[in-house]
Amino acid sequence: MAYLTITHLEKSFGTTRVVRDFNLAVEKGEFISLLGPSGCGKTTVLRLVAGFEMPSAGSIQIDGRDVTGLRTTQRNIGMVFQAYALFPNLTVAQNVGFGLKVTGVARAEIDARVAEMLRLIGLPDLGGRYPFQLSGGQQQRVALARALAPKPRVLLLDEPLSALDAKIRVSLRQEIRQIQQQLGITTIFVTHDQEEALSMSDRVVVMNGGVAEQIGAPFEIYNRPATPFVASFVGSHTAFDALVVDPGTGTVTLGGAQVTLGQPMSGKAGSMVRLALRPEAAHLGRVAGCETVLDGRIAQVNFMGAIIRLTAMVGDTALTLDTFNRPDTPPPPVGSAVEISVAARDFITLGAS
Amino acid sequence: MTEQTLSLPPAAVGRTARPRRNAWRAMSWAVFGMGILYFALPLIGMIEFSLRKRRGTYSLDAYTSVLTDPQFQATFAYSVVMSLITIVLGLALVLPTALWVRIRLPRLRPVIEFITLLPLVVPVIVIAFGYLRMFNTSSFLPMTGTVTGTNVLLAFGYATLALPYMYRAIDNGLRTLDVQTLTEAAQILGAGWFTIIFRVMLPNVFTALLSGAFLTFSIVLGEYVFAALLDRPAFGPYMIWTGGNKAYEPAALAVIAFAITWGCMGLIQLAGRLFPHTRAKR
Amino acid sequence: MATARGAYIARTAANWAGVIPFLAFTLIFLLLPTVNIVFGAFRGPDGGFTLDTLAKLFEPRLANSFWLSIRVSLFSAALGAGIGFLVAAAVIHGGLPAWVRAPMVTFSGVAANFAGVPLAFAFIATLGRLGLVTIILKDWFGINIYTMGFNLISFWGLVFVYLYFQMSLMILIISPALEGLKREWREAAESLGASGLQYWRMVALPVLMPSLLGTFALLFANSFGAIATAQALTGSSQSLITVQLFAQIRGDVLQDPNLGYAIAFGMIVITAIANSIYIVLRTRAETWQK
Fold first, then answer.
1. Are residues C153 and C63 in the same domain?
2. In what order do the strands lie in the sheet with A77-80?
């Protein structure tokens, strides 16, 4: 049985349905990300699990116990906010020990636990400082320690890295994941940054308009997006409008070439269908195993260091192509004609155009 | 510790969490209600009392009595004129200063702000007393010797009292305006100081100026101590005199004074609406 | 070189030109009179330096007046701050509809200036012997508050009337501070298991404390210097120090022309201390609200 179960969760504010029929089963110790654009309902789901909002319908179970009707104070969850939310009048140590103090734990035990948590987040000597004396990254780590100190059953994080600088964001997310795995605590992480979600999670829930469009491992979500939204939100891609030739074998025409996708598709011959292609699935020149060859003209070269992102015009479509930097091979100049090889199975069908 | 493995039916969702929230809310309404009662009752009482002059029925007799009283007309007119003079004087003093401090002399800011706080720290009666001692007939500036001199002195006193409010209103207006950047932009485009002040600044702080002006107006109108000690025929002393000598007229006066203050507030809001570009972004 | 220097002088002069009128005005019409008073307090009948005049402040008549003013101010400030805080907290955090807040703040802005004569009249018209509420209680409920010992023209009556502008001033000042209490703090406390009371006791009130105490000091100073309301309400029956000073200025009722200076000086000292406390605490509050 799953550790955290969300069943048929609904939430409406007035007449707006913000969360629709949301279902999720989380195993103990699993790290789940809720990924989606602003307004998709991911934060609302988190707040419903936390107990800050009451659902319009549906239920939430933690560790076999129905918590839907319980107040936040009774749910034994830990929460980390985007704005850190450290209590400004308390020191770091007092902040971290807050959850223990309000439940009446003995002073000595609080001190021991606080010291342990500060070691865990790598700030053992900052116990006496006040929040305003800390940097953003330090404050967020203290917030994490504070949430974890009372040994909650579930850890909830609401876009904790969004307010931080890019570099700190990357190092802190690794730290968070590391601590989470070390403690084995069931975690739900809300973010709009797909890189965060993909790199940290055991599973990702891609949300849009209050609905979970796809739930799966990062590899699944990225390579086998279930809906057009997921395909476009996660990772970048080039969208092609292709003409259906034979729906049975999945043959279409695009960019002047005829491509057999190998899977039957819906839609009649003569109709238009939309396909997506990941940048790393397109290769310069002829490559073994990629039978489809498209002719393109280089329109733009973006040298990003390890990766070179090329934009080539294939017919009317601007195709994005990523290739690794090779010190002995400079990228093709703008305007040159190139051949681009693609494996037919790498095309993702998005639906009718 | 009970284990609830059955999920609550949807209708019961949230029910256990609501009672405590409702208790807080009920208490809040109670406190708020008592607050409203305390603030509203005197106003209602004041209006009701002012209508009671004619025995047995409600009438506006107290108001007619007040409005036709030549003393009322004289002192009211005096105070209105005084407030207009004070407003002009206050603006003339504060506006250039506020501008200069923002643009040219930012280091002087703490000093200026301290000075503008003094009229709030030093009690009004002490300032008035100070005037009497400093500018009486045996001092270097014998202003109290003549009627005109005393009137001028009163105007100066009013300007001093209104200083904190005037400065704060204008300073707020300038702050949201980001005077520094605006000046630089205007200078790059080739504007001289005159153009900058009159065609860039002023139109944008207009609402701030208006709100400072209305505040001053309502302060001067109701002011008592200064006028009484300098023995000038202002509205404040007239109200006190009425309080000691008439029964229902004081309430009518209070209603009029309150209505004027509300009117000023309303005009400030109206100005903010008519000139939306000058409204501060929150 | 010379022209550069000349330009520098011209520029400095232009820099100062805008503030000279203001500085001159406040010097002559604000600073000098106040300083004159301060010096006058130390001046004896012969014009020389003496502390005798100040010593007279401690004689019963004046000392009692000071003490009365201090008591009125303490009570009106404490009650005004306490009740004003509760009202503001009720509106902002108590679950009341959001549209209540703006009118409350606007009204408080007007009410805070509704001091003086009109305020006294309004209360006399409501709770005086012939006041609306007095009559309603007598005729509708049979409760005669005046025979029960209530009297508007009294110490507590004055405190009660002062609450009008004290409470509104408190609401005006504390509302931004209350709004500054981040919602996340409360939610974080809840997620850590704290009850509403624990949150207020351990986080919210401590954070607000500098603002609360500071505003209390401000209200104290505000009440201490008030005179018009008292004159209109209690006349000379309550011998507040402001009333005493007024009488002294008007007609030297204390038989010592220099005593006025001493009283004024005493008042300046008290309000200056109160205001300094307010400013210090306000700066402290601002560092925490960051």
1. yes
2. A77-80, A154-158, A186-191, A31-35, A203-208, A211-216
In words, the CATH class of domain B62-278 is: mainly alpha
Please name the residues between 172 and 231 in chain C that touch chain B, using a CB distance below 8 Å: 196, 221, 224-225, 227-228, 231
Tokens at residue A209, please? Answer: 């308009």
Q: Using N-to-C axis directions, what is the helix angle for C60-93 and B18-50, rounded to 10°? A: 130
Residue numbers in A near C193 (CB within 8 A): 73, 76, 99, 102-103, 150
Kindly state whether residue C5 falls inside one of the protein's structural domains.
Answer: yes
Closest chain B residue to the Cα of A48, Cα to Cα: B14
> Nearest CB to C30: which of B100, B105, B160?
B160
pLDDT at B196 over 80: no
Same domain? For C85 and C204 the reply is yes
Closest CA relative to residue C81, chosen from C211, C271, C197 = C211
C-alpha angle C183-C187-C188 in degrees, rounded to nearest 5: 115
Contact A68 B3 (CB under 8 A): no
Q: Where are the domains of chain B?
A: 10-50, 62-278
Q: At residue C95, what is the residue type? A: G
**Residue C259 counted as domain residue:** yes
Mutate to test the interface with C, among B102, B116, B129 (most CBs of C within 10 A): B129
pLDDT tens figures, C183-235: 999 999 999 999 989 999 999 999 999 889 989 999 999 899 898 889 888 88
* H or E segment and range at residue B206: helix B206-222
pLDDT computed for residue B182 by the predictor: 81
Mean pLDDT of chain B: 82
Domain membership of residue C47 (yes or no) is no
Distances, alpha carbon C195 to alpha carbons B193, C192, C200, in Å: 60, 9, 9
Closest Cα in chain A, distance from residue C197 (Å):
11
Residue B18 pLDDT level (bands cut at 50, 70, 90):
low
Distance CA A260, CA A249 (A): 7
Residues A256 and A317 sit within 8 Å (Cβ to Cβ) = no
Q: State the pLDDT at residue B275.
A: 67
Instruction: Find the helix or strand (DSSP H, E) in which B280 lies.
Output: none
**Dihedral sign of CA atoms A170, A174, A179, A181 in order:** positive
> In this structure, are C3 and C139 located in the same domain?
no
**Ramachandran angles phi, psi of A339, nearest 5°:** -105, 140
> Of A141-150, B86-95, B171-180, where does the model show the most confidence?
A141-150
ipTM: 0.84
Chain C's closest residue to A71, CA to CA, is C190
**Closest Cα to residue A117, out of A173, A186, A50, A183?**
A183
Answer yes or no: do C33 and C136 share one domain: no
pLDDT at B190: 83
What is the domain range of residue C16?
Answer: 1-41
SS3 string of A56-72?
CEEEEEECCEECCCCCH
Side-chain half-sphere exposure of A195, counting CA atoms within 13 A: 8
Q: Please indicate whether, in this complex, the C-beta atoms of B7 and A68 are within 8 angstroms of each other.
A: yes
Q: Give domain status of residue C33, yes or no.
A: yes
**Angle subtended by helix axes B235-245 and B70-103, to nearest 10:** 140
Q: Are residues C164 and C244 in the same domain?
A: yes
Reading the block at residue A144, the tokens are 């994490």
Assess A292–B contact: CB distance below 8 Å, yes or no. Answer: no
Q: Each residue of A185-230: pLDDT tens digit?
A: 999 999 999 999 999 999 999 999 999 999 999 999 998 888 888 9
| pTM exceeds 0.90 | no
In this structure, are C215 and C95 located in the same domain? yes
Chain C, 175 to 194: residues with Cβ < 8 Å from chain A are 182, 184-185, 187-194
Q: How many structural domains compose chain C?
A: 2
Which residues on chain C are in Cβ contact (under 8 Å) with A52?
A: 187, 190
Say whether both C273 and C170 belong to one domain. yes
